[in-house]
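Quick one - inputs below.
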Amino acid sequence: MAFTSEHITSSAIEATEFMDLSRRFRVTGVPKTVVNDTIEIMGALPEDMFVRAALQMQPEDHDGEEDRAL
Amino acid sequence: MPLLSPQDEQVLTKHLSAMEKRVEVVLFSQAIGGGESGVVAKQVLDEVARLNDKITIVEKNFILDLDDRAKYGIDKSPAIVILSDGHYTRMRMFGAPTGYEFVGLVEAILIAGTGRVDLEEKTLEMLATVDKPTHIQVFSTPT
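Output:
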């Protein structure tokens, strides 16, 4: 993602070597992703779900059900 | 003692042969207070670099090379920054690249070396809409 977008920087962090950072972001399991210090994604997600979660984009709306539910 | 077995080297050499661009792997480490992981990181990088002459390791001192740290936003060590044909790729790693992290290192080198990413078309469309600084931190462990 970072290679593709000039606005994105990626950091792969070895959690056990940087315990302060891991504690700060409550890393209790891996992989854990933190975007802009605020968005937290636990575990490995399918690509589409991961990208939407990381970039705070809406899930694809197939039938409008989600909009109505909101 | 080498970290990579002859079999590992054989498989990696094959993968890395797809590289067309020059990849510089910049390692920030520190001799004092740096612990063992900087030494391990150096050994891993040296062993990978030996497998393809397009890969170069550039060593920086975390304590002294402050301009380089600022250039890539490096605030902890050991840190690895990947450059493709001299250009910053915004792909960085912190900690020794062993275990699961090693896979990430090889993938990052391959992306930088081939200029190709293995992402879905829909993902590329979403990434094209990003217009604000976005920092993605992925925490993992070696096992």
